[in-house]
């Protein structure tokens, strides 16, 4: 036999496609030809596969070898095809029987010594294989646990080409995936660590309950970062579908720890304010990788020093925040990643960043206005809650005696409030108040009595509030009512919401 075929999977964004790796060996000048739109990494595969085969003690077939990856039109990248290429080549050369790998998807990068190394994106690849009717996969040992997350497939692992060859010859066994990771992950930072800062804690709770974007203004040391980092700790666990998406994205980005399983906690991403647009939104040369925005999908994107971020970068966030997904144009096609995030922005009130806050600020009012105006164009209007945090003084730190409420307690209130909102919006399919369209809130049966929204209308008429802002206050009012266990917001909740929205709530 001089022809063989082994199955593999190629990824475009989150979507996997079954790829057939064909090997044909014919008499002629010894050479290896790769066809089927391979990128640079795939050309390197040729050299890796040869070294791995030889260093695994197999002889390299001295014939003309053609390796073809089908479908040809599918852009392919990365090193996950190595193992399938080696298997197809050895089978075509008559070194291996073909039957044991029939209908099996084989994934893995080869080291020059013949070791099988982990690859990115194994979870979405295995999910795609199962979707295409495959029920057996062979994956690198370090990726085995993420592969077992996909139901309906038998996962076996390899650590070397040698082991795969022995298995196909029925001389040895493949490896079993490692047992599932402990169900309880290490606890992250907790709300109990935050001293004082009542306003910040309250804003965080409302943000978590309604899925609202949040902006924190205040001098350095006011605890903006501490608060933001603790938002995931009061968000509910990810449901099955969300957990699969989040784990797939981390797998593609190579951020899933070796032997990592399903990610159940909402992610937290805090890119530096000097990060490039590609790092934030996604991209990179050739293959479009997910950026911080997609890695924060179903979790929290924290932009610290937001006023220092380049305006073109802030501008690039605008569309994805609105649509919940990133679309990256590439020469060989378009790549899409989900990006439904809860945004937390933090900024100093002015460029001098006096730690004592307003008292010692040396900036003119014009400079202060210009500084924050950098945010207002692209993003600030999309943010429901704006808080101005006071500087924390030593006296405050010393007088606080009661311990702060821990995250677990706050998270319970958040879950209750979210359940009330989800029950109310079942018809529209919205899960949190932040997703509800404004038109829905302004019409029956959800329209609030005129007496309760009078102040809101006044703010709109006076130009203190945009039309979009008007709707955002309504959403916030519903969240506050949900947290308080009320059936619907009344005047008090609307006023509270207006203050959270306009930043008039000072701590
Ligand atoms: Zn200043």
UniProtKB/TrEMBL annotation:
The protein depicted here goes by the name MCM C-terminal AAA(+) ATPase domain-containing protein
Taxon lineage: Bacteria, Bacillati, Actinomycetota, Actinomycetes, Micromonosporales
Read off the Pfam families from this record.
ChlI, Mg_chelatase, Mg_chelatase_C
| Record key words, sorted | ATP-binding, Nucleotide-binding
The answer on whether this UniProt entry bears the keyword Phosphoprotein reads: no
Family, according to the entry, reads as follows:
Belongs to the Mg-chelatase subunits D/I family. ComM subfamily.
Q: Where is the MCM C-terminal AAA(+) ATPase domain?
A: 291-349
Signal peptide start-end: none
User: Which Gene3D superfamilies does this entry report, sorted A to Z?
Assistant: 3.30.230.10, P-loop containing nucleotide triphosphate hydrolases (3.40.50.300)
Q: Matching CDD domains, A to Z? A: AAA (cd00009)
